[in-house]
Amino acid sequence: MSVTVLVGAQWGDEGKGKVSCYLARQANIVARYSGGNNAGHTVVVDGQTFKLHLVPSGIFYPETLAILGSGMVIDPAAFIEELSTLQAAGYPCKNVRISPLAHLVLPYHHEIDKLQEKSRGAKALGTTRKGIGPAYADKAERIGIRLGDLLDEVKFREKFLYNMEIKRSRYRDLNGAVNPNEILDSYKRYAEVIFPMVTDTSKLLQEAIAKKQKILCEGAQGTMLDVDFGTYPYVTSSATTAGGVASGLGIPPQSVTEVLGVTKAYTTRVGEGVFPTEETGKIGEFLREQGGEYGTTTGRARRCGWLDGLVLKYGARLNGYSGLILTKLDVLSGLEEVKFCEAYEYKKERLDDFPIEMGIFAAAAPVYRSFPGWKEDITKAKKISDLPKSCRNYLAFIEEYTGVPISHISIGADRDDMIVA
Ligand code: IMP
User: Fold this and answer.
1) 1 beta partners
2) Can you tell me the mean pLDDT for 122-143?
3) In the CATH scheme, what architecture does the domain 263-420 have?
4) For labelling, which of 21, 174, 185, 319 has a CA lying 20 to 30 Å from the CA of 349?
5) pLDDT tens-place string over residues 329-366
């Protein structure tokens, strides 16, 4: 039996989509456990680029089931559009299954997300404006509408109209922005498309575990965006860490056999929030341009900086990484010097661990260890020994510092540009 969890080790956008697509080849099931179409995975398959937001990467293998789990929030319009793109590219998507317990994202969630961001003024979170926070808020308030409700027209209508009433009383600016009859009509159409894919995915996964099948749990966003352990309030609204797998898929925690942390060879962040190793000058620009660091979901330029070791160590403790997958190592080629944040300095004291007190984090300055860079193009490397010595030194230090072995290194955009360590 093997249940492998793939977790973002930073603030999202670590390249989990590509890694998931690579590992999915050996899996019977690939399952997403949290988030919605705030996530964006760019995957290159046989030279074709796909931008996935909701559908797990198992979709590219017809024999592999692609599951959208109960911990997710699903915007049916975005989901159906994604399926259509995949179908047009020759992937029939007959292998998709969705939990009826997942919550729906409705057009009023988008509007509320925008209104909330506007009202936050200078304290805006920089959300993706996909309605994710408001949909999870409804779930916690126990007024959310689940995907299963969509399949019963009468029930859906009743719950929807009740919600509209509540939303209108709370958000006067919502009036006019959302048309109830249009929504009811379009959601009826979505229900017809989605209906054949809905099943008890938790039971399906439990049965697969009993049959000792291989399951890949695909994380979205990253550890530092976890609603509990991330850089709150600059986080997303779901459990992004490995702990979210059990609740987001409905499988026992002890069924997880392996947790792989995916990290870039440097750091990026979109949206607001403290980012100690951010480089706003030439280095940041170099990383952004070489790494194509523009958001898959929003197109926003990502903030870029050096790899933060404290974040990796914190994630290793929270998630229990059995291995690290380092992505975009090729982006660092050409730099004279590569820096790694090995501690923070706060009030003239050295911190060796990530501080969970956000006030300390906000005032902390990075303490760097410097490594000589390398000039060579590494995109054709097949094994670790093909990499330049200075590059290998950087990797060895990451392993020593985090105490976690690097299991894979990604050196290009294509699914197969991967070195297995
Ligand atoms: P929300 O998830 O749209 O509510 O946005 C909350 C924060 O999480 C914002 O800073 C977003 O930029 C960030 N975020 C959400 N999803 C992703 C992702 O997939 N990658 C990177 N950042 C994300």
Assistant:
1) none
2) 97
3) Alpha-Beta Complex (3.90)
4) 319
5) 999 999 999 999 999 999 999 999 999 999 999 999 99
What's the predicted TM-score (pTM) here? 0.96
Domain 2-100+196-259: which topology? Adenylosuccinate Synthetase; Chain A, domain 1 (3.40.440)
Please say if 408 is a catalytic residue: no
Q: Report the pLDDT averaged over residues 161-172.
A: 95
**Residue 1 reports pLDDT greater than 70:** no
Please report the atom of ligand 1 found closest to the CA of residue 133.
Answer: 4
**Type of residue at 157:** R
* Ligand 1, residues at Cβ distance < 6 Å: 11-13, 38-40, 125-128, 130, 132-133, 220-221, 225, 234, 236-237, 270-271
Parts of the chain belonging to CATH 3.90.170.10: 263-420
Beta strands in 219-332 (DSSP E): 258-264, 267-269, 303-305, 307-308, 323-327
Least Cα distance to 409 among 341, 331, 342, 337 occurs for: 331
The arithmetic mean of pLDDT across residues 153-165, rounded, is: 96
CA of 295 to the centre of ligand 1 (A): 10
Please calculate the CA angle 390-395-396 and round it to the nearest 5 degrees: 95
Which ranges in the chain are annotated with CATH 1.10.300.10? 103-194
Q: What is the CATH number of domain 103-194?
A: 1.10.300.10
